[in-house]
Amino acid sequence: MKKYLLVLLLALVPALASAAASNYPLDSFKADLKDQESMQRGMALYVNRCMGCHSMEYQRFARTAQDLGLPEDLVEEYLILGDHAINDLMTISMDKSDAAGWFGAPPPDLTNEARLRGSSWLYTYLRSFYRDDAKPWGVNNALFKDVGMPNVLEDLQGVVINTCTMEELAHGNKGTVEPLTGKRMGQCLTVQPNTGSLSEQEFDQAIYDLVNFMTYVGEPSRMDSERIGLYVLIFLAIFFVFAYALKREYWKDIH
Ligand code: HEC
After folding, report:
1. 151 vs 4, 44, 155, 156, 254, CA distance in Å?
2. CA dist., res. 140 & res. 26, Å (int)
3. How far apart are CA 218 and CA 44, in angstroms?
4. Which domains does the chain have, with CATH numbers?
5. Tell me, what's the pLDDT at 220?
6. Ligand 1 contacts CB of residue 149 (under 6 A)
7. From CA 237, how far away is CA 217, in angstroms rounded?
8. How close is the Cα of 153 to the center of ligand 1, in Å?
9. Residue 168: helix, strand or coil by DSSP?
10. Is the dihedral of CA 115, 29, 187, 204 positive or negative?
11. Which of 109, 120, 142, 198 could crosslink 29 through cysteines, CB 3.0-4.6 Å?
12. Is the CB of 243 under 6 A from ligand 1?
């Protein structure tokens, strides 16, 4: 009995560990890997805004172009910003140890980030930066406290300020939605009006596209697996008919 209790306790350890990381509630995210246009926009945002610091060193430009339905010459012209060839891996030239000196922590490779952290985590993280003058880059993140990453999307989203105490913020006070106007009231993080080039919905859509793209990169063959899986099921269904007929034939004389 004691053994079982111990096993049960050990099984709980991962849950406890992740619970300790942050109480900030995640906004749910549902990837749509059939929406190639969304992933294309996400890729454009990624190479323009993220790839200066974050590589995707297990993913090739050519594979991405093929999966997202983009012609290779367009990718070469508009989406390869460094001196890469289309068949190259999506690496960057920033030196990891230099970067660690500049930011406190090196920007990690993001090929597998969506699988590591989960898409909902990413979607929430990228929308949870806010101004914090006590920090070296003047920003903090409600989900990833004291993050070393600057807020690289502030010109799109606008200036976000936190109107709560740290305690309230950590528990993710997202306010209540006013039923008539659909506006959020009393939420901790608020965007200062007219400071960003996108509206709140447009910004959420841009981040949706970005995370959709990162979800695809985390598992590029998922669409293929789902398609092949369907064929396998259809095959099994047809095969069952013949297998059953054969079984009846074999057992006919015994009964
Ligand atoms: C100027 C450099 C820079 C740019 C540009 C940048 N980041 Fe970062 N990012 C960092 C650094 C540095 C960290 C490490 C922060 C830490 O560990 O405290 C980081 C961390 C992250 C993390 C968390 C990694 C983890 O699991 O610990 C994610 C996710 C991320 N960045 C996504 C992005 C995305 C998406 C973009 C583009 C919109 C982007 N970053 C642009 C520097 C950058």
Report:
1. 47, 18, 9, 10, 76
2. 17
3. 17
4. 21-230 (1.10.760.10)
5. 95
6. yes
7. 32
8. 11
9. helix
10. positive
11. 120
12. no
Which DSSP state fits 53? Answer: T
Whether the CB of 6 sits within 6 Å of ligand 1 = no
Q: Which residues of 121-130 are buried (b: 16+ CB within 10 A; e: fewer)?
A: bbbbbbbbbb
Q: Which ligand 1 atom is at minimum distance from the Cα of 116? A: 26
CA pair distance 53, 44, nearest whole angstrom: 15
Taking CA atoms only, the protein residue closest to ligand 1 atom 1 is: 53
**In sequence order, what DSSP letters do the residues of 146-160 get, joined into one string?**
T-SS--TTHHHH--E
- In the chain, the amino acid numbered 25 is P
d(CA 59, CA 79): 14
Task: Give the H or E element holding residue 140.
Answer: strand 139-141
How far out from the chain centre does Cα 149 lie? 16
Measured CA to CA, the distance from residue 203 to residue 48 in angstroms comes to 16
How many Å lie between the centroid of ligand 1 and the Cα of residue 110? 9
CA atoms within 13 A on the CB side of 81: 15
Mean pLDDT per segment of 10 residues, for the chain of length 255 residues? 71 56 85 97 97 96 97 95 93 91 93 97 96 93 94 96 85 66 70 93 97 97 94 98 96 84
Phi, psi of 227 (to 5 degrees): -65, -45
**To which residue do tokens 């991962």 refer?**
14
